[in-house]
Structures are given as structure tokens and as C-alpha cells.
Amino acid sequence: MLNVETAIIGAGPYGLSIAAHLAARGREFMIVGKPMESWRSFMPRDMILKSEPMASSLWDPALDYTLETYSRSALLPYEPCGGPLSLRQFLAYADWFQRCAVPEIRDCHVSGLRRGENGSFDLDLADGTAARARRVVIATGHAPFQRKPEVLARLPADLFSHTHHVTEPAAFRGRDVTIVGLGQSALETAALLAEAGASVRVIGRSRDVAWNDPPRPARSWLDRLREPAAGLGAGWRSYLFSEFAWAFRHLPADRRLTIVRNGWGPSGAWWLKDRVLGKIPLMTGARIEAAAEEGGKARLSVRGADGLREIVTDHVVAGTGFEVDFDRLSWIDPALRDAVVLRDKSPVLAADFQTSVPGLYATGMMGALTFGPSQRFMYGAKFAARTIAGSLGRSRAIAPDPGFSPARPAVAGQG
Q: Do residues 133 and 180 share a domain?
């Protein structure tokens, strides 16, 4: 059995950023997961990130490995705002970051996590390895928390999917597809499918689509003062939630819940607007009341402003986002899951992201109710990595297992 001080579960933006901070501190840790798996395996290759480049870096404490640094060194275009970032470029950057800042990753999944002896945690890895850690950080990202409307969930798997699984738009060429939702994932999936030759419609409850305003490349100092650039978008409200996540937890719990649920509603990126409007039918102010399989197709009963209508379609895609439900992490032993205090299905976290179980940390989307909406986005890893690494760095280290080679601090400029 491997004995490690800290185990990080998940190798996406949050897991890699936390690992980079621990490596820079010279702390022993093990990071387990397939690097950037959700981004690499569950997103269309031609996708463009909604976040601006300035908000799309992974985080090491010295800021040696930013997206800007990578882009300049690779002679790739970089604009902090207004220069849409392709998934291809982002993944190339993430690979570079990982090689430089977190060179050692155990590339497999965790199949089991339970309490061990003396307050430690025992992990079972899919490669057959067993490990014991004094602290565990759960950084598994959004993938386990796909939101699927109950009215659609009864459709057969060949007729219904979540945008998380629509990775090959060309596979829908010549088919009729109905997409549910008016957020970025729904709208971009609709554009990609239509451009690949599918017949697409979009259904959403809102009366209209909310489109983000395009960035203004040249702004006066007064405009920048009125609306400062921030990880969640321009404006003081976005700036406060982006840069002062530590203060969010001091708001009343009900207020925090309202902000996280409603503060950043579904919207489409400014660069996507021309690919959707006038090209894809948008049924706004409508909801699906019933769905059933009929003759190998999905029949939907849709209630809109003009009453009830029936739609028959080859496939339905839920672009309805993600919602945290800690109990969906089925690889966690039930006794350990039950020991974690929840609010609205999210772990209740201390100021250092620690759950009610000492030594067990949770981050990413699971931190949004405590630290605000930035934790639902990649930019939130900046605060989470610094805070969690600081907490772990203050704790007493355990003796490393002689057979385990811990991750080492990366040398600036490596890679």
C-alpha cells in the first residue's frame, strides 16, 4: 500500500492547480486522474471556450505557467479579452502546464474511498493500487453532476443525451435534433450540430436568449474604473465575486444560495450569436411537459406561448448544465458520504475548503455555495488552489512511503 501525505482526486483545472501549489511548496502528494479528461473526452473538438483568455489559465503560485506565457512562447495569438480561445489551444496549454508544474500523475480513476485508521483515508485505484492518505482533496469537476430534466430522463439512451456526451457533431448529420436549454452549452452544441449538417431546434423556458456583450478592445481609464475586467466578466459585481471569494462565505446562507442559483443565469457568448440567430429555430418561453419513445423517435409535448404542440425528433439533447449532488460520487464509501454535512446537496465547507470530515476537502462546483459563483468556473481554481495548499502546507506531514516517488517542484521554464 502506498502511504502519502495528500491525495488529490481529479486532474482537471482545479486538481492540477492545487497540485502545482503543493509541488512548489515541496509537499508530498499524489494526484490521481486522467489529465483534463472532461475537456479532452467529453467536449466537441471544435468547441470554443466561453471564458475569456485572461480567465482561462491554470494556476501555479509564481504564475510561471499562464496561458499568456504559453501562447507567447508557442507563437500563438493571445488577447486577454476578445480573442476566443479554441479547445485545441487550451488543451495544448493544459498539457504544457502539466508537464512543467505537475509532471507526475497517476493516470487512472479512483474506484473507492473510505475512512482508514487513525483518521486517514484508504483509496482503491482502478489500476489495482491501494493507497492511504492523511488528507484527501476531491477535485473531480462537473462531470458527475450532469443535470437531466426528469421529464426527459425516461427516454431510451439512444434518443436522449446530455451535451457532456455530444462530442462528435458529424454523427448527427442528416438527423433531426432537439436541444433543451438556452445556456452556452446548449447554444454552442446547436451551432456545431447545425454546421455539421443536422436539422436543429432549441427549446428553452426563458422568454429570450441572454447574450453576453462583446468586449470593447479600447476602453478609457474611466470605463475601466466603472467596469473593471474580472474572471466572471466585466463589472464590479463580477470583480468582487471573482477576487473576494473568501468573503462570500460570510453572507447569510439563504443569500448565498440565491446568488449561486440565480446570479449567473444561462447565457450565450457574444461570438456565438451570429452562428445561431437566423440559422437555428429558437422556441423560447416554452417547456416540455411530456416525452415518450414512439416508433424509434422521441415525441415531445411542448407548451409555449401559442399553446401545446407535438414535436417528433430523432434525438433530444439536454443542454441544462450541471448541479451538485454529493451523493452521486458513488465511489465514496456510504459511511463516509453520510458523515459529510450537506446543504442543498453540496458539502458545507470551512474557510479552507475542508468538509465536516477532518482531512477531507472538496472543491470546484462543490465549493460554490460556500465561496460563490466563481467556483463554478475555471477561474475559481485561482482562489481554491492557493487556499487549499495553504491549509495543507500548515499541517504536519506524515513519513512518505519509501516506494513512492512524490511529485517534485517544477523548474521554472521547464517544458
A: no
